What does this fold into?
Amino acid sequence: MSDKLAILLWSAPLDEPERLRAPFVYAQAAAALDAEVEIHFSGTTVRLLVADTKNAEIKSYMKEVASEGVRFLGCSSALRRHVRGSEKMIPEFGGAAGAASYAQRAIDPEWRTLVF
It folds into this structure.
């Protein structure tokens, strides 16, 4: 697979499902084109990785997107700040990846990046 896309999700509004859906649409489209796709959740968007009942509609769509091979990664600093240690994560959560991980993707000529 030669096409690679890393999406940074940090300012998408958690309370606006239509706008919040956009990064997942782009991720799904890239995956359908056989690209390797990662979504890096930062800031309060890491709350989407928590297995709770909030944002149920978008979390359902996230399952669909993940089933197509899109990896969901949470910023390690944001996870520490916004997720309590006792909270369970969604099964699609692929692990922690800090700012350096996304920055590495951004400067790697094999990767393309989008920011939401």
Observations:
- The chain has a mean pLDDT of 96.
- The beta strands are 4-9, 36-41, 71-74, 93-96, 111-115.
